[in-house]
Amino acid sequence: MNVLFGTAIRFGDVTPYPVGGGGGREARREMFAPGAFGDALHSTREVRLLQNHDDGQQLATTQDGSLRVFEAVEGLKFYATAPSDLERAARFKRTASLVKQRLVTGVSIRFVCGDWEYTRVDGQLVRKITTVASLEELSILQTPAYPLTRVYVGNAVPPVFMLREELDALSR
Question: Which of 11, 15, 44, 102 sits between 20 and 30 A of 144, alpha carbons compared?
Fold first, then answer.
């Protein structure tokens, strides 16, 4: 159980209920367009993998290389390896055990929205996010806003989750 991997967002999936709101903002259903994360993923800003959006439950981070996040055709994908420090490694192992038992199955994100447009899906007005200004975290939890997200656990990163340069290195 050295690797957590999965899909954090599936492009085109609409939240089944309104999200956001608060602070004078209206809650609404939303979806992400393909390519929405491009600018955010090319930023040098750290992205963290947490459990239950809890900053005290950090599992991995892009800063130390234990978390990789990338866009694929179907959505935003990620994989995380157990970090080297003992405290986070123990937390990672506990979370991986919950995932393996299917007690925790979903993924949620914290982000800053860039551009969006409104569109109609099944007769309902939906905010379609076309640009994410900043991706701050992925969080492993039981009830995500986007129910088709998934997290899995394994002993190695499945090739479909590897980045092109990693696949090229394996073939040498």
Answer: 44
